[in-house]
Design a protein that fits this description.
- The protein is mostly helical and 313 residues long.
- The strands form 2 sheets. The protein has a two-stranded antiparallel ribbon with strand order 1-2.
Length: 313
């Protein structure tokens, strides 16, 4: 399917008078067309550019008919590294689920962590503390959903984050079964009062740190960048015992506030931002022989386009 989509969107420009008109139109639009990739961030980040009417590099591009917006289908045709692509309903569902997973994770964490700031003998505090493991499970599930749907160009990086999540799940289960339950304790409560248990649940938070790092790098989100340092600092401080309770509470409060801002602001971004250059993912899904054929076709079209431009000049 991916090969058919990519192959049908790469068309050799027509000849004769129509070609000359296309060249003129392409030159008029050339200053408005932005490059489709950012070489400094291309391995982690999702980025794309919309195309106007015209012909460039031997590929015919359609006119954008709408702008992207949350909750609606974007009909814009974006020019990717391997051909034009558009946002379809499945893309929208994946992005909404990705962002919903982040909101679920952030909400569960904030509710659970709020118990540290509530006064003793407060009804809500008691209810939260009795259900800390439930909030932990819900938050882990939300994070897992987001890591499953996250768009990162380098598959190995995505698989590493997912592997950390799996390790965190295995470690959490092992800690509960082998340590917390025999002691008659809950998982979260046990980790709080037994810092060495951070080694077992830590991969969960390492995966979360990797996710916010990616978001901060790709979109310049200040809250995500700060979270990249707050999360490991608090966990390492708790693990080593070198951090006082006051400092822990300060960092925990910062984590809560920044996490809420980060998750909420995701819904202010266009859908296309979390998709990235869809043509790259389509290309990566092709068999090796089809990848080679497509690259050769792209190179031939570029040579033809360059030679035609030289002739025209």
């Amino acid at each position: 399917m991916a090969s058919r989509v990519l192959s049908t969107t790469l068309v050799t420009p027509p000849c004769s008078t129509a070609l000359n008109k296309s060249r003129i139109l392409a030159k008029k639009n050339k200053s408005r067309i932005k490059p489709s990739t950012n070489s400094e961030k291309q391995f982690l980040c999702s980025s794309s550019s919309a195309s106007d009417s015209g012909v460039r590099n031997g590929k015919i591009k359609s006119k954008a008919v709408s702008e992207s917006s949350q909750g609606s289908i974007d009909r814009t045709v974006y020019q990717g590294a391997f051909g034009p692509w558009t946002v379809d309903p499945e893309d929208v569902r994946e992005v909404v689920l990705y962002r919903s997973g982040l909101v679920t994770c952030a909400s569960s964490f904030v509710i659970a962590a709020s118990a540290a700031y509530l006064p003793e003998n407060f009804a809500s505090k008691e209810i939260i503390e009795q259900n800390l493991d439930l909030f932990y499970l819900i938050g882990a599930g939300g994070l897992g959903l987001s890591l499953y749907l996250i768009h990162i160009y380098v598959t190995e990086i995505k698989r590493t984050l997912q592997a950390l999540w799996v390790l965190g799940g295995v470690g959490s289960l092992a800690t509960y079964v082998a340590l917390a339950q025999p002691a008659g304790d809950h998982l979260v409560h046990y980790v709080l009062y037994n810092p060495m248990a951070v080694w077992f649940v830590g991969p969960f938070f390492a995966a979360l740190t990797g996710l916010v790092f990616k978001e901060g790098l790709c979109y310049g989100k200040l809250e995500a960048g700060i979270l990249t340092f707050v999360i490991p600092t608090l966990l390492l401080g708790h693990l080593t015992g070198l951090m006082g309770d006051g400092v822990k509470l300060t960092l925990l409060g910062s984590w809560m506030a920044l996490f809420v801002i980060f998750a909420g602001r995701k819904f202010t971004q266009p859908i296309k931002d979390d998709i990235g250059d869809k043509s790259v993912f389509m290309f990566n899904s092709l068999p090796e022989d089809e990848k080679k054929a497509l690259i050769e076709k792209l190179e031939q079209q570029k040579l033809q386009s360059d030679s035609q431009e030289v002739t025209f000049q």
